[in-house]
């Protein structure tokens, strides 16, 4: 889940646990916040889980700033918050306090009653850079700390798909901060290029005029902020009188250039490569639960991994294709330097060793590489398959190591879980557990694409899904399957022959036995048959490549 964009909340939040351990921080920052805001009626609460589901939040009704302590440190004794030097030790945590102080000092307007939610959302997006810009203008030194938290307040889900709404959202959250003089234009150059590619130069220029006008608004001018939000929607082609709610990303679309540009920006800010940042994000969001059991592989599993590796190695094609090789005689392309060398050797009475001609020869091509993603349904109706597919995940991963293939196994249910990441070779078998739903199938397909680049590349790509097809969002799943099929990725669907044990589904959108188009569907009667079908399909694909 992405961080909320608005850091101003009405109402009274529940008290977070662990506040007592961080009481010294709360007291020190409460004493310090008047210096940041010019207000003496504010309190600061620091605790793990504070600020709801955001890193930081300001509650105007309570005159309280809350900061999630997990963004400061693991332990409150990391430094003394009463000492001035503490801000250099925890710059992100202190930056969150400054961000909250910016809202407390300058976000003094409230959304008028009856405002459509989409207008309120846009106004809140514009308020982010407006409040920070006012804070920087009043206290120039605070820019240093606000820069530290821009990446904390952003999330790759802010650019989930390449549509006008999300491009505008990214522009408001990041590009507008350039004009607020929080970040530089050089910092956001890749993001600006991606936003321009989606919106076009004209619309982006119109949006920039809007956020620059917002930066000049008075701290209490709610009417102007809502008017600017309406203009923003009109530029994006949205009628707020017809579409009241904030647009949500289409679950059937893969992330595009917006998400890639945002990941690049966040990775540079974190001092890592985009691949390292994406890997860390996936590990944070999709790691297996700690309560899942691990066991040592059996001798049968070791033997199965060896057998599959041998089959994959033998299946890799060896067709010849034209190459180049030197030759002492024609035909071919004359290489002048080598011809002169050969003449000199002959004139000296030596046996010529230079090869003046370059001929095309039949050389073996590069062997195809297999990228295989296995998705396992973890709903209750698939309980009989989870243990066998857990074993299969270990077998596929260790067979791939010997056959120069790349595999990953992903479970989808209430959440998406990466059981075995690519290019990892687990020593133990991790046993999946069934869950209640299959709400995350579209997310699991997107994670598989992110890990193995199923829509691009020269590798032989395959997606195998072990599921009864009893899914929560079939249209989105079908859209993703179709996209992979058109991109050249083979989709294999292993469908159990048995019906669900707890009766027929009542929801018409959840169809038992649904068959996806653009996928090869096989009906299997037991888990071992599903494992064999995936292995056979991989071997056949390599043989015919």
Automatic annotation (TrEMBL):
Region annotated Disordered, chain positions: 1-20, 312-334
InterPro entries per UniProt: Uncharacterised_CoxE, vWFA_dom_sf
Ranges annotated as spanning the membrane: none
The protein's name in its UniProt record: VWA domain-containing protein
């Amino acid at each position: 889940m992405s961080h909320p964009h608005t850091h101003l909340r009405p109402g009274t939040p529940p008290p977070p646990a662990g506040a007592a351990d961080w009481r010294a921080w709360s007291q020190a920052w409460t004493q310090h916040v008047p210096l940041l805001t010019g207000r003496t009626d504010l309190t600061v609460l620091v605790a793990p889980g504070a600020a709801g589901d955001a890193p930081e939040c300001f509650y105007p009704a309570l005159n309280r700033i809350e900061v999630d302590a997990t963004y400061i440190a693991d332990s409150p004794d990391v430094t003394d918050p009463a000492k001035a030097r503490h801000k250099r030790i925890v710059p992100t945590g202190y930056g969150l306090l400054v961000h909250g102080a910016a809202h407390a000092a300058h976000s003094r307007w409230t959304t008028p009653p009856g405002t459509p939610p989409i207008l309120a959302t846009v106004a809140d997006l514009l308020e982010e850079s407006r409040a920070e810009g006012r804070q920087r203008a009043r206290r120039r030194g605070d820019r240093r700390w606000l820069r530290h938290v821009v990446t904390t307040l952003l999330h790759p889900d802010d650019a989930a798909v390449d549509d006008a709404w999300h491009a505008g959202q990214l522009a408001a959250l990041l590009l507008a901060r350039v004009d607020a003089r929080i970040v530089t234009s050089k910092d956001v150059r890749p993001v600006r290029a991606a936003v321009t590619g989606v919106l076009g130069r004209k619309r982006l220029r119109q949006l920039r005029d809007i956020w620059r006008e917002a930066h000049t608004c008075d701290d209490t001018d709610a009417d102007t902020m809502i008017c600017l939000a309406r203009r923003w929607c009109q530029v994006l082609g949205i009628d707020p009188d017809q579409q009241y709610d904030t647009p949500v990303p289409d679950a059937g679309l893969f992330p595009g250039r917006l998400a890639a540009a945002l990941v690049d920006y966040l990775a540079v800010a974190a001092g890592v490569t985009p691949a390292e940042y994406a890997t860390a994000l996936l590990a944070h969001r999709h790691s297996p639960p700690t309560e899942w059991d691990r066991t040592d592989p059996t001798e049968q599993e070791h033997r199965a991994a060896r057998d599959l590796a041998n089959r994959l190695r033998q299946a890799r094609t060896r067709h010849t294709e034209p190459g180049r090789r030197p030759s002492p005689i024609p035909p071919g392309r004359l290489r002048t330097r080598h011809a002169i060398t050969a003449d000199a050797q002959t004139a000296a009475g030596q046996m010529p060793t230079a090869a003046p001609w370059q001929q095309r020869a039949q050389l073996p091509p590069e062997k195809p590489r297999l990228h295989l993603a296995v998705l396992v349904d973890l709903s209750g109706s698939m309980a009989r398959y989870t243990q066998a597919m857990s074993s299969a995940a270990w077998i596929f991963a260790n067979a791939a190591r010997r056959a120069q293939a790349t595999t990953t196994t992903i479970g989808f249910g209430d959440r998406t879980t990466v059981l075995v990441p690519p290019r990892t070779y687990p020593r133990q078998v991790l046993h999946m557990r069934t869950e209640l739903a299959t709400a995350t199938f579209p997310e699991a397909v997107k994670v598989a694409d992110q890990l193995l680049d199923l829509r691009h590349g020269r590798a032989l790509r395959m997606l195998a899904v072990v599921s009864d097809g009893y899914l929560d969002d079939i249209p989105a799943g079908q859209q993703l399957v179709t996209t992979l099929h058109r991109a050249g990725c083979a989709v294999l669907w292993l469908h159990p022959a048995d019906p669900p044990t707890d009766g027929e589904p009542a929801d018409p959108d959840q169809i038992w036995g649904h068959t996806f188009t653009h996928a090869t569907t096989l009906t299997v009667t037991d888990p071992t048959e599903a494992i064999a079908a995936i292995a056979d399909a991989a071997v056949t694909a390599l043989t015919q490549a």
